[in-house]
Design goal:
The chain is globular, with a radius of gyration of 13 Å. By secondary structure, the protein is α+β, with helices and mostly antiparallel strands. It is 29% helix and 21% strand. A 5-stranded mixed sheet has the order 1-5-4-3-2, with helices on one face. The longest helix has 16 residues. It is built from 3 helices and 5 strands. It has a single domain, classed as YaeB-like fold, CATH 3.30.2310.
Length: 111
């Protein structure tokens, strides 16, 4: 799957081992690297559905985004690059049609 970033700063944070460890700590940094590698290897978001990390569609003001768990409350948040996001007749996102994503942020949005 094509993985892109909205800016160079977030791309560097996600791809640079030292920055990841410094910002998020060892466990979250390692999981972030793994999740990004899995996204890169996947054909579409549907491939992510059954992998570790508990990928899910978000609701409310984050509708149209996906997240997965890293460590503690920290989440990797991504969105389909193609907007509006492809949807199924029931209104949910069509995970099979999402083959390009943008990394939105790494955040604990529960705070």
């Amino acid at each position: 799957m094509e993985v892109s970033f909205p800016n160079h700063r977030l791309k560097k944070l996600c791809e640079d081992t030292a920055q990841r460890k410094r910002r998020f700590g060892e466990p979250a940094a390692a999981k972030l690297k793994t999740r990004l590698d899995e996204l890169d290897a996947a054909q579409c978001m549907d491939d992510m559905r059954y992998l570790p990390g508990h990928w899910e569609e978000l609701l409310g003001d984050r509708k149209g985004q996906f997240s997965c768990r890293l460590a503690g409350g920290l989440r990797l948040v991504v969105a389909p690059k193609r907007q509006p996001a492809p949807v199924k007749p029931d209104g949910g996102m069509d995970w099979r049609a999402v083959d390009q994503i943008i990394v939105i942020e790494v955040v604990d949005y529960h705070d």
